[in-house]
Design brief:
- By secondary structure, this protein is of the alpha/beta class.
- It folds into 2 domains: 10-255, pyruvate-formate lyase- activating enzyme (Alpha-Beta Horseshoe); 324-381, Winged helix-like DNA-binding domain superfamily/Winged helix DNA-binding domain (Arc Repressor Mutant, subunit A, Orthogonal Bundle).
- Helix content is 37%, strand content 24%.
- The chain is built from 15 helices and 17 strands.
- The chain has helices at 39-53, 77-90, 110-119, 133-138, 145-158, 176-188, 206-209, 217-233, 252-258, 291-297, 315-323, 333-339, 347-355, 370-374, 376-381; strands spanning 10-16, 18-19, 31-32, 62-69, 93-103, 123-129, 163-169, 193-198, 237-240, 243-245, 262-267, 271-276, 281-287, 304-309, 330-331, 359-361, 365-368.
- α6 runs parallel beside α8.
- The longest helix is centred in the middle third of the chain and has 17 residues, at 217-233.
Length: 386
């Protein structure tokens, strides 16, 4: 029986599903942009979608907003201004609200960056992936290294004090030298946050169907370890599997995910997770994936693609799948606070994980060991229901 004494923090995720071109490695819900982007119609749909979500989280304050995609920077500042006006009218917002927008260098415009900042968007996540033109071409990216550097310099110039760079390693044609250069270039450009992760071939992608030639796994691990040390030496503290931050600039939106917090999801293919104190239940929901179907159905029951209450037996695994990504672990009481169950619910798995040297735990903290971080999938699987 779940027992929520208080509800977890609440975030808002907004999905913009269009890109100039679909990248061959991307498994997100993204679609090639039509010649005429239906910007206004999509904003109308997002507002209807949000209005339908409000009764589920009535009175709760939104702590963070994340606009992802797709390529959200395809949309104008005027479109987001209209959307934010509705958000402010419908939802209480934290005075410390973090608003992140994903941007790609290939869709970069200096004035648009400045306009985003004026709207209250106070964090960017720039999808660079690499500073090597050969790697960028292999990844199907529409920008080159010069455009990437220019976009980052402009983010600084217009006044963004908090922005993330996405970098991948283990890329087609990549060598130890080019992998090292990617990290060195990123450090030199002084973002407040770097996401650094290995390219994986996900199902339902072109790369999965037609795999490119990738570097061998053993040297990739050596590159990763060496570049993680370079990031640490430059003051980037690793706080999650693939996230590194300077000056306490951790992504608050993603921290809410990893702490098993709640979030509304609006937009084509958006997902949400909401805890309900009255029903003592946690529900996951997702929206229609096809943009036109989503726009047609937004504001009606038909916009829902899936809606499912998380079974009590699955909650331990669901919580740990997120929380064990954090390198410093999490406060032990957080499990009860956000999963609604006593820690005894996962005692057996905790003891097994500790015996295998994968985590440490006491009444204050649960934390993966270095071995646990290296074999995270093995660690998390211990919490699967029997």
């Amino acid at each position: 029986m779940l027992d929520f004494k208080a509800l977890p923090p609440l975030s808002l995720y907004i999905h913009v599903p269009w890109c100039v071109r679909k990248c061959p490695y991307c498994d997100f819900n993204s679609h090639k942009s039509p010649d005429s982007l239906p910007e206004q119609a999509y904003i109308d749909a997002l507002i209807r979608d949000l209005e339908q979500e409000v009764p589920h989280i009535w009175g709760r304050t939104v702590q963070t907003i994340f606009i992802g995609g797709g390529t959200p920077s395809l949309f104008s500042a005027e479109a987001y201004d209209r959307l934010f006006s509705s958000i402010r009218a419908l939802l209480p917002l934290s005075p410390q609200l973090e608003i992140t927008l994903e941007a790609n260098p290939g869709t970069f415009e200096a004035q648009r960056f400045a306009d985003y900042l004026d709207l209250g968007i106070n964090r960017l996540s720039i999808g660079v992936q690499s500073f090597n033109d050969q790697s960028l071409t292999a990844l199907g990216r529409i920008h080159d290294s010069k455009q990437a550097i220019k976009a980052i310099e402009m983010a600084h110039k217009v006044g963004f004090e908090n922005f993330n760079l996405d970098l991948m390693f283990g890329l087609p044609h990549q060598t130890e030298k080019t992998a090292r250069n990617d990290v060195a270039t990123a450090i030199d450009l002084e973002p407040s946050h770097i996401s650094y992760y290995q390219l994986t071939l996900e199902p339902n992608t072109l790369f999965y169907q037609q795999p490119p030639t990738l570097p061998d796994e053993d040297p990739i691990i050596d590159w990763q370890i060496a570049n993680q040390q370079r990031l640490a030496d430059a003051g980037y503290q690793q706080y999650e599997v693939s996230a590194y931050a300077k000056d306490n600039k951790q992504c608050q939106h993603n921290l809410n995910y990893w702490h098993f917090g709640d979030y509304i999801g609006i937009g084509a293919g958006a997902h949400g997770k909401i805890s309900d104190a009255a029903k003592q239940a946690i529900t996951r929901r997702s929206k229609q994936k096809q943009p036109q179907t989503y726009m047609d159905k937004a504001g009606t029951a038909g916009v829902m693609l899936t809606e499912e209450i998380i079974a009590e037996d699955d909650l331990g695994f669901e919580f740990m799948l997120n929380a064990l990504r954090l390198t410093d672990g999490f406060p032990t009481p957080l499990f009860y606070q956000h999963a609604g169950l006593p820690i005894s619910h996962i005692n057996s798995a905790l003891q097994q994980a500790e015996q295998q040297g994968l985590l440490t735990h006491n009444i204050h903290t649960i934390r993966p060991t270095e071995k646990g971080q290296r074999y995270l999938n093995t660690l998390v699987e211990l919490f699967l229901p029997e």
